[in-house]
Write a structure and sequence with these properties.
This protein is mainly α and 320 residues long. It contains 16 helices and three strands. A hairpin with a 2-residue loop joins β2 (156-166) and β3. α11 packs across α16 and α13 packs parallel to α14.
């Protein structure tokens, strides 16, 4: 009786390999899935999607799980390229999801300038099957096309196992898959200094040069805060609780931030972090992408982080 059960299971597990012949599949090695660079890239992409789609009240937590049905990609295409496709907003069946992805990816490939199918590293099937590798390739291409100023982690690579079914059996090979280049495409001729963040460059200069720039930004800040009767004397410390930063953003962008949305007199790090996070979210909403700045760094009085935010505001509004 036991032998019969065993034979039954063997019969059920028989696979028709002919239908898979000639097809390749790439699987990320488990060790690469834990690579800090890959984790950082995923975090930046999630943050980018959520900041882009915040007006739509769409929140993504997991790249593979949240993009497979086409809803998020549909909204991204609409927000980034102003394209409104004749597809249903929400589709529940697998067939409808695949059809929706076909329409979206066809339009996206055109927008990305990828008529040559050999250069496309994603497909409807891969995205719908929640393939992380294909999903990241697609999102990176979208960032490079629609928002090239966004700082993605450079030189992100993963080890993948390429599995191919042939008539003689299954072949496998380990390869390196590049997700982001060591430098942005088209910037090969630039020196490391020219590619570096301007604030990072500034902080490597002599102290008097750094102070000159800080004084110019401080003058700009106080010019705009004077109408509120506020004065900033210590740039390194007075932005740490987020209050003046929020008031400055409201003043420059011309909108009022309701007092109940933030802590006007924060008394602990948690309230400070809430204020600074809100400030950076507002900047993202106005088009100033601050994905490279961690709110906690500003609360911790990190000079570089504070300067990056103020410099971005200074560049945008100095001529007004």
């Amino acid at each position: 009786m036991e032998a019969g059960v065993f034979e039954c299971h063997r019969e059920e597990e028989t696979v028709d390999t002919e239908s898979f012949q000639g097809k390749k599949q790439k699987i990320i090695q488990p060790t690469s899935l834990k690579d800090p660079k890959l984790e950082k890239l995923k975090e930046v992409l999630v943050y980018w999607i959520n900041s882009t789609l915040k007006p739509e009240h769409i929140v993504v937590q997991n790249l593979e799980e949240d993009l497979y049905d086409g809803l998020v990609l549909h909204h991204l295409l609409s927000r980034l390229a102003g394209v409104h496709l004749p597809v249903e907003e929400i589709v529940l069946t697998s067939t409808a999801q695949i059809h929706k992805l076909e329409v979206i990816l066809e339009e996206l490939d055109k927008r990305l300038g990828l008529q040559d199918s050999s250069r496309i590293k994603w497909s409807v099937k891969l995205i719908h099957n929640k393939d992380l590798l294909a999903t990241i390739h697609l999102l990176v291409a979208m960032v490079r096309c629609f928002q090239p100023e966004l700082d993605l982690p450079l030189n992100v690579e993963v080890q993948v196992v390429v599995v191919e079914v042939t008539k003689s059996g299954i072949k496998s090979d380990v390869q390196t898959e590049v997700l982001t280049e060591a430098r942005d495409a088209g910037s090969d001729s630039l020196s490391n200094t020219e590619r570096e963040d301007p604030i990072e460059q500034l902080l490597k200069l002599e102290a008097h040069k750094v102070n000159t720039v800080k004084k110019a930004i401080l003058h700009f800040v106080n010019q705009n805060m004077s109408t509120m009767g506020l004065q900033v004397a210590d740039m390194d410390k007075q932005f740490a609780d987020g209050v003046i930063l929020l008031l400055l953003i409201g003043q420059l962008e011309g909108f009022f931030i309701p007092l109940h949305d933030f802590n006007l007199t924060p008394v602990n790090p948690s309230e400070m972090l809430h204020n600074v996070t809100l400030a950076l979210d507002l900047l993202n909403d106005t088009g100033l992408q601050m994905s490279s700045v961690d709110p906690q760094d500003i609360v911790s009085q990190d000079v570089a982080a504070t300067l990056k935010v103020l410099y971005a505001l200074f560049k945008k509004h100095k001529g007004k």
